[in-house]
Q: What sequence folds into this?
C-alpha cells in the first residue's frame, strides 16, 4: 500500500506511527523523470575564464526583473543538475514515520526521539532520523544535519537551550558512499540519473517533508547543515528546496561552496574529486568531462549559492583546511553576492572562517547558531562574530559583470 495510495486521509498519531500524505503531492501521476533536454557537450561550450554571469539568461539577455530571475533560476537548476549532480525523483506521495524510541533528556529540558522514515516503492527507502525537541509548546526553529549517524551534534544541549530543535539523519541509509554501490534510493528509483550527492540531498528534503508536518516545528525557520561531503549535500539541498530558510555548508570545498575556476594552493580540483578511484560516484558521469577544462563550465559554484537567495546562506570554513579551497570559497561568495543584493537580501549571505583545520567543531556550531539567531530573530551575536569578513580581502574580483540596474 505504501506509495500507491491516492486517498486524502491523513492519519496522524504522534507517538506511534505517523503516516504523512504530503500536501501538493496528492495526485496519482507516476514518478516518471521529467523530460531532460540535452545540453551542449564540453567542446561546444564557450570558454569563460571569469566566474560566469548568473544574470545572463539562455536567450542572451540579462535579468532585469524578479520574474526574469525566477526564470533564470530554473535554467541554472537545470544546468547544474544536468552537468554536475544528476536528476532526482519527485517527493514520494507517502512517508511513514515510525517512532522507535522517545526519552526525556537534559534534566527534562528536551525530548529525544529516534524516528524511522520509510518511503518509495514498497517503503524500501528508509532513513533514520534523530530529533531532540526543547520542552514547551513551540513552534521551534530547527537545525537539521546530514551525517553518518544520528544524535551526533556536539553541543546539542546548548543549542536546545537557545530554543532550537536539533535533528540529524543518516545519509548513508540512502546511499552507502562506496563506488559501484547502488544504495536503497537509487535501487528504488532506477529511472533517475542521480549521483550520490543528489541522493543524500534528496534524503534531506524527505526529512524536511516529515519535519514540516510536526506542530512543534516552525516551518519558516528550518536550517540545513552538514560537514565536508555533508556540506556539499547541504548546499545542494538548500539550493533546490525553498523550505530551507538557512543553508549552512561547513568545510564543503570542491563540489560545495568552493568554486572550480579559482583555487588556492593544495586544494582539491574537479579532476581529483571526479577521479574514478576517488569520488566519481558523487557526481553525474558527464561532470568528469570538465576535468582540466573548468573554464568550459557554463556555471561555477556561485550559481549554486545564488539559487539560495533571497533565503539565507553562510559558508563556515577553516583557514587551515587548504584541501577545501578557502580561497575559492571566498570567490564564490563574492560571485553570489550580486544575486543576493539584486533580491534585496545582501545581509542574508554570510561567510565565516576560523583558524584550524577540517572539522565541524563546537566553534562552528556556535557560529551557525549566531547566524541563525541573526537571520531568524534579528539578534546581534553576543560573541561579536561578524559574517562578512573576507579571508583574502586583496584577492582580485573574480568577475567583470555587475548587478542589473532597475529591478
Ligand atoms: C575528502 C574529499 C573532500 C571531502 C572529504 C570529506 O577526502 O576529498 O571533498 O568531501 O573527503 O567528506 O570528509
A:
Amino acid at each position: 500500500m505504501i506509495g500507491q495510495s491516492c486517498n486524502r486521509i491523513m492519519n496522524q498519531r504522534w507517538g506511534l506511527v505517523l503516516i504523512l500524505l504530503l500536501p501538493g503531492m496528492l495526485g496519482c501521476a507516476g514518478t516518471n523523470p521529467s523530460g531532460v533536454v540535452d545540453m551542449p557537450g564540453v567542446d561546444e561550450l564557450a570558454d569563460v575564464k571569469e566566474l560566469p554571469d548568473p544574470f545572463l539568461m539562455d536567450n542572451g539577455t540579462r535579468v532585469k526583473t524578479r520574474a526574469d530571475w525566477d526564470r533564470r533560476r530554473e535554467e541554472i537548476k537545470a544546468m547544474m543538475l544536468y552537468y554536475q549532480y544528476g536528476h532526482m525523483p519527485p517527493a514520494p506521495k507517502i512517508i511513514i514515520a515510525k517512532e522507535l524510541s522517545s526519552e526525556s533528556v537534559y534534566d527534562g529540558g528536551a525530548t529525544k526521539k529516534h524516528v524511522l522514515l520509510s518511503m518509495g516503492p514498497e517503503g524500501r527507502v528508509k532513513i533514520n532520523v534523530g530529533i531532540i525537541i526543547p520542552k514547551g509548546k513551540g513552534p521551534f526553529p530547527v537545525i537539521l544535519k546530514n551525517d553518518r549517524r544520528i544524535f551526533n551534534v556536539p553541543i546539542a544541549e546548548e543549542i536546545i537551550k537557545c530554543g532550537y530543535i536539533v535533528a540529524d539523519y543518516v545519509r548513508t541509509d540512502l546511499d552507502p558512499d562506496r563506488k559501484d554501490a547502488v544504495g536503497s534510493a537509487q535501487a528504488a528509483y532506477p529511472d533517475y540519473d542521480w549521483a550520490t550527492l543528489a541522493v543524500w540531498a534528496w534524503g534531506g528534503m524527505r526529512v524536511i517533508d516529515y519535519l514540516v508536518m510536526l506542530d512543534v516545528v516552525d516551518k519558516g525557520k528550518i536550517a540545513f547543515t552538514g560537514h565536508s561531503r555533508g556540506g556539499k549535500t547541504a548546499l545542494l539541498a538548500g539550493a533546490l528546496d525553498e523550505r530551507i530558510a538557512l543553508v549552512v555548508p561547513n568545510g564543503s570545498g570542491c563540489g560545495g561552496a568552493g568554486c572550480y575556476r579559482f583555487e588556492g594552493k593544495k586544494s582539491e580540483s574537479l579532476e581529483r574529486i571526479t577521479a574514478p578511484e576517488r569520488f566519481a560516484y558523487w557526481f553525474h558521469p558527464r561532470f568528469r568531462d570538465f576535468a582540466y577544462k573548468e573554464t568550459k563550465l557554463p556555471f561555477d559554484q556561485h550559481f549554486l549559492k545564488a539559487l539560495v537567495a533571497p533565503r539565507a546562506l553562510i559558508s563556515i570554513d577553516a583557514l587551515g583546511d587548504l584541501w577545501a579551497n578557502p580561497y575559492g570559497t571566498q570567490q564564490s561568495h563574492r560571485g553570489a553576492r550580486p544575486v543576493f543584493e539584486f533580491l534585496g537580501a545582501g545581509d542574508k549571505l554570510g561567510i565565516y572562517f576560523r583558524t584550524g583545520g577540517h572539522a565541524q567543531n563546537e566553534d562552528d556550531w556556535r557560529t551557525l547558531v549566531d547566524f541563525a539567531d541573526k537571520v531568524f530573530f534579528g539578534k546581534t551575536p553576543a560573541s561579536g562574530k561578524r559574517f562578512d569578513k573576507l579571508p583574502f580581502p586583496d584577492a582580485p574580483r573574480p568577475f567583470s559583470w555587475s548587478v542589473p540596474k532597475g529591478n
Residues 4-377 form a domain with the Rossmann fold fold (CATH 3.40.50.1820).
